[in-house]
Write a structure and sequence with these properties.
375 residues, alpha/beta, abc type-2 transporter like fold, 15 helices, 5 strands, 67% helix
Length: 375
């Protein structure tokens, strides 16, 4: 028993002497519980909606109140042309558009059926399916309310159908195929996991093999080392991107509606902060095991909060804030916009600026951290 206790004491001592590993071991269960508890929410609510009300009557405003009272729609934009509606839907700023024709009130007044158009962004089938059902229910409920008012004021109406006909149209993905949403998300997530994991071991391997001293005595600058470290992984990641996209296109029939040149240029931009993050982790870790454990608290939030599986709009506000701090969030938005919608550069400029800032910050931190590690 004395030998047995000595071995236990030895293992406990080794564990306590590695506080970094110990911290990450205890952080991961708490992080998993919090993220899975809050992010695993399939309830769709407050979907960004653009309103094009060409009637502007009391009746049309009552219809919009019926839509808003469901909790599914958040009236964030009011526009005055169909071109503005299309721009907001194409850019992803709005997921839904409600278009009320100029003769809406007059048709109701004469006892005819008034048509209302609801446009939905089908690149996210989860949101589109919920909005599709909610729009149909709003049309039925509001139509029944209008019919009751007509009966009370005018007596029996000529037609027996609903006075309000809500017509829905799904854009980009009429069949609401889940692969249109999940495959671009998986492309971004796979690139993030492979690129970050590979580069997280780059400098740690040098340190464990004893070759870090050779880098120290060379006249190479910090930024030159960082760039030299990430270029091979950029090439590997590009090859990986081509392979993943080919599988997604031919096996899951995901369309490629945008420019491939633009897409690969943005893949290259996305790889810079991703690889910079891996290098930054590599400069902080002392062993490969530490590097792998340090990537896990980053991988899990990126997977859960970036919109790969759950719509960001359904997350609590504080998790939406953390989502905005993840490069993967912006890249998935770019992938879905270019692949599924076929948008151009002008509609994804904010996401490009965000990725550029992430690249500068993370690559800069990696270079600065490497200089500190030489001291």
């Amino acid at each position: 028993m004395r030998r047995f206790r000595a071995l236990i004491k030895k293992e406990m001592t080794h564990m306590l002497r590695d506080p970094r590993t110990l911290i990450f071991i205890f952080i991961m269960p708490i992080m998993q519980l919090v993220l899975l508890g809050y992010a695993n929410n399939t309830d769709i609510k407050n979907v960004s909606t653009v309103i094009f009300n060409q009637d502007n009557s009391r009746a049309s405003r009552a219809l919009l109140d019926s839509f808003e009272s469901t909790g599914y729609f958040s009236f964030d934009y009011a526009v005055y042309s169909q071109a503005e509606v299309n721009r907001l839907i194409d850019s992803g700023q709005a997921k839904v558009a409600i278009v009320i024709p100029p003769d809406y009130n007059s048709k109701l007044a004469t006892g005819n059926t008034a048509d209302v158009l609801v446009l939905m962004d089908g690149s996210d089938p989860t949101i589109a399916s919920a909005i599709f059902s909610a729009s149909a229910l709003v049309g039925q409920a509001h139509g029944a309310s209008v019919r009751s008012e007509q009966l009370a004021l005018q007596g029996p109406a000529r037609g027996g159908g609903s006075p309000v006909d809500v017509r829905t149209r799904v854009l980009y993905n009429p069949d609401l195929l889940g692969s249109y949403n999940i495959v671009p998300g998986l492309i971004g997530m796979i690139l993030f996991q492979t690129a970050t994991s590979l580069t997280a071991l780059a400098i740690v391997k040098e340190r464990e093999r004893g070759t870090i001293e050779q880098l120290i005595v060379t006249p190479i600058r910090n930024w030159e080392l960082v760039i030299a470290k990430i270029i091979p992984y950029i090439l590997v990641s590009f090859a990986n991107t081509i392979l993943i996209m080919a599988v997604g296109t031919f096996l899951f029939h995901v369309p490629l509606r945008g420019s491939l040149i633009l897409l690969f240029a943005l893949v290259g931009l996305y790889l810079l902060p991703t690889l910079g993050l891996g290098l930054f982790i590599s400069t902080m870790a002392r062993t490969q095991q530490q590097a792998q454990l340090m990537t896990m608290p980053i991988m899990l939030p990126s997977m859960m909060l970036s919109g790969v599986f759950f719509p960001i709009s359904s997350l609590p506000v504080f998790l939406q804030f953390f989502s905005s701090l993840l490069p993967l969030t912006y890249f998935i938005y770019i992938l879905r916009s270019v692949l599924i919608k076929g948008v151009g550069l002008d509609l994804i400029i904010p996401q490009i600026i965000a990725l550029t800032i992430f690249a500068i910050v993370l690559l800069g931190l990696a270079a600065m951290r490497f200089r500190k590690s030489l001291d």
